[in-house]
Amino acid sequence: MGIKKIISRTGSIPFKVFIMVLSAGIIGIAGVLILKNNIDKLSQSYQEIIEEHNVNRAYMEQISQILYQHRSIVAIHVASKVEKDYEKYEEDEKQLREKLEDLLTRFRSRMTGDQREQMYHRVYSDYYSYLQNVNVTLQLSREGSTETAIFYLTGQMSDFLESVNDNLAGLEQLTMEEMELAKDRMNSYIRFSRLSTTVCIIMISVTMLICLIYCVTITSHLDRYKVNLEQEIEQKNLSITQHNEKMMLLQDNIITGMANLIESRDGDTGEHIKRTSFYVNLLACALREHGLYTDILTDSYIELLTKAAPMHDIGKIVVPDSILQKPGRLTPEEFEAIKQHSAEGGRIVREVLGSIEEKDYVEIAADMAAHHHEKWDGSGYTAGLSEEGIPLSARIMAVADVFDALVSKRCYKSAMPLEEAFAELKRSAGTHFDPQLIAVFLGLRNEITEYLESH
User: Using CA atoms, how far apart are residues 240 and 233, in angstroms rounded to an integer?
Assistant: First the structure.
């Protein structure tokens, strides 16, 4: 029934009721129209927030990724002992620094509003402090002050880098809060539209029809907006998860790259790291299958053990090339120097990785690096530990490391045939190695032979 029909029938309706119904209809329709206008504005505002957030997020992800790449170049510079490589690493560092400056300048133009400007200034202040420490670290690295350079790399540089990332995360959180505010406002209008629909239905049947059709349409649109908002938030959470995964992968690649760089000084191409990691994983899984050390060898422990294996010889960074690459027999003094790589390895792992990796991983990696040259009978180095006083991770690493050393060609020896290598391990069970580990390792002969033949 239309407005004209209502007017034509006013003679049969009490005048006050007519006025009340007419007013209710006008107010209801006006309210719906105002609601639609506000919703359109909210929708436009929300779309602008989403678009702005996507662009800002892309800037922040680029800045964060390039910062970690920049730090990895500085770390490689510090780890390197080759003078001719310094210029290449410094050129790479300079190019990344220029990219960061350009990104930060463009990002600055998007930081409108007092709160965003303040947070951006914190980002840039921490970035500037980070660069100052980079300059100091590179200078120390060139001067050969490796330990001091590592201190700056893992201390001051890492702190300011983390602070930059925290402030970038704060900017992202600010955008999330704006999105949540837009969502709340839209939900408020959804509730208002439904209430308006109910009031119009109760007060007048004619107005009910008009308001019902219009408000149901608007409500449907609002529900779609709500669904879109929830999808955007879900996508945002997914993006954050993927970003964190990328950062973890980048971190793992940096750690593996450092290990490969150190191994290359010993004449190895990095295959030693891959092989020993395979042996460590294979032996740990086999020990658990045999019911040994099941309280320690959980899925998580084996995963961290395998991930930590490449770090076992990181202490060789302190050993001069003249000793590492010497083809002949080492003098007693040279042997004492090379023995220090175990203790130094444990220290470096804790100092370099202690602030960026989980505690369990750091402990396993440090134990491997510090004690993989200990012997079952206590005659190893550097702490002289014996039997089960040697951490399980180090005992497993010792078997993998010695076996690979036996079957691999080095600058000072030829590769030993597999059968002789297995025999040598068997002879050393109970003196050099944990006899239970050797018994299980010898039972893996077929898997190990197959692996070596395929690689």
Answer: 11
Task: Pull the structure tokens for residue 330.
Answer: 């080492």
d(CA 355, CA 453): 40
Identify the band that residue 2 occupies on the pLDDT scale cut at 50, 70 and 90. Answer: very low
User: Residue 280: left if φ>0, alpha if ψ -120 to 50, beta else—which one?
Assistant: alpha
At position 34, the amino acid (one-letter code) is I
For residue 255, how far is the Cα from the chain centroid?
12
Could you write out the DSSP letters of every residue in 381-420? SSS---GGGS-HHHHHHHHHHHHHHHHS-BTTBPPPPHHH
Q: What is the pLDDT of residues 133-180, one digit of tens each?
A: 888 888 888 888 888 878 877 887 888 778 878 877 777 787 777 777
Q: Indicate the pTM of the whole model.
A: 0.48
Average pLDDT over residues 290-307: 95
Structure tokens at 193: 């539209």
CA distances for 113 relative to 50, 169, 170, 178, 328, angstroms: 17, 17, 15, 13, 68
Residues in contact with 5: Cβ distance below 8 Å, sequence separation at least 6, in sequence order: 206
